[in-house]
Amino acid sequence: MEKIKGKSNIGLLTVILVSYFVVGFPDGSFTVSWLGIADDLSLTIAHSGYILVGYSVTYTLAGVILSWLNRFMKLQTIYFWGLIIMGAGFVGLALSPNFIMALAAITIYGFGTGAMASSMNSYMAKHFTARHNNWMHCFWGGGATLTPLIMSQMMVLFSWRAGYYVITGILGVVAVILLISMAKKVWIDDNEDAVQEEAETVVVKKRYLAKKWHQVVEILTFFFLGGTDYTLVFFTGMVLMSRGLSLEAVGLFSAVYYVCMTTGRMFFGWIAKWLKETSIIRIGCAIAVAGIGVLYFTGNIAGMAMTGFGLAPLLPTLVSDTSNRFTPRIISKLVGYELAAFGAGIAVLFFITSMVLEFVTLEALFPIGLSFIVLVFLCNEILVRATKVNDVN
Questions:
Q1: Which one of 85, 93, 249, 310 is least enclosed by Cβ atoms within 10 Å?
Q2: Inter-residue contact 89 to 109 (CB < 8 Å)
Q3: HEC per residue, 311-350
Q4: How many Cβ atoms sit within 10 Å of the Cβ of residue 250?
Q5: What is the CB neighbour count within 10 angstroms for residue 213?
Q6: Do 314 and 270 contact (CB within 8 A), yes or no?
Q7: 3-class DSSP state of 313
Q8: 102, 132 Cβ separation under 8 angstroms
């Protein structure tokens, strides 16, 4: 299926980029608000594990049921309701008097975030290119960068609860923008029958991967990728502090990582006009592997920058490449499973890594992170090979 391009869709792309900005709000805000939440509700570090699992479970669930939801609603409608659910979760968290209520609120906005991420990634995979998808995820990085600043300022002036009220207000503005765009019929109609009809007209020109194991490998790629990003960011600080780095320096490492990830998505979105998805994925994996090597052997901040820059294009480019490999009629379902696997990878691989680091050694983090990236690379290469064989036959 040819993806939509051209000046006529600048308005739609603008709405998508601006609205995807808020998908980064949960990750960015919680990294700061947790300090206030833990103090206010008398929580320990162990409670953060339950929160991560609760968030990941509902995030994953939203991806799993995306295809079912898409039978009743268009993808942009699912995205809108995901935003409303996210806002409800934020308000619920701000009002929470204890851990149980806070956990419930976080699982609610986890579902909203998962619905937004899976529906919009599916929409972009169908209608836009890897270039646009990288830009969209660049805006996610902007949201993840802005909300810690908002939250920290609100905590200084008022409280973490006030921070979530302000963030919810921003969500309200974006919700209005989405409603106006849908009323103005800016969105491309995402009718499954029309997609199937178009697919049938190009079937003689392109053969898609059709075996179940192809889909399983595709989903596993996202599972391993999900465990790579969050695990490296969360635990690298602990490893470096054990080597003697100060808390201030460790904080700078995390900031550099997210800045380079945002910059990387902007850069790879630009060069995607000339490079195929496969080349971008290979380059990204190679840079990330080199970055982890620098971190492991030197502990230099350049390694963190390289890792963030290398990992930057992997998620959006892999999502975009889905429409090149698989028939259009299963894209919504498959992208939903991909984002669900990404969420599951965050929870499962984070937990496994935490156990290894606790009972073996903190220095095992970098070999573990390296192995995750290698598995992402190998899964993708298996599908590249399968696509070539499929085209020849």
A1: 249
A2: yes
A3: HCCHHHHHHHHHHHHCCHHHHHHHHHHHHHHHHHHHHHHH
A4: 16
A5: 10
A6: no
A7: coil
A8: no
pLDDT tens for the chain, 393 residues: list them: 344 444 447 778 888 888 888 888 887 777 677 778 888 888 776 676 678 778 888 888 887 788 788 788 888 889 999 999 999 999 998 998 998 999 999 999 999 998 898 888 888 777 777 677 777 877 877 787 778 778 878 888 888 899 899 999 999 999 999 898 888 887 776 554 444 444 444 444 566 777 888 889 989 999 999 888 778 877 787 788 788 877 567 667 777 887 888 888 888 877 877 888 889 999 999 999 999 999 999 888 899 899 989 998 898 888 888 877 887 777 777 888 888 888 888 878 877 887 888 788 888 889 999 999 999 999 999 988 888 876 655
User: Which residue type, as a one-letter code, is found at position 86?
Assistant: M
- What residue has token string 């790629």? 221
Rounded-to-integer distance, Cα 338 and Cα 218, Å = 7
C-alpha distances in angstroms, 71 versus 122, 282, 302, 338, 339? 14, 35, 47, 18, 18
Task: Identify residue 241 by its one-letter amino acid code.
Answer: M
Eight-state DSSP code of residue 363: G
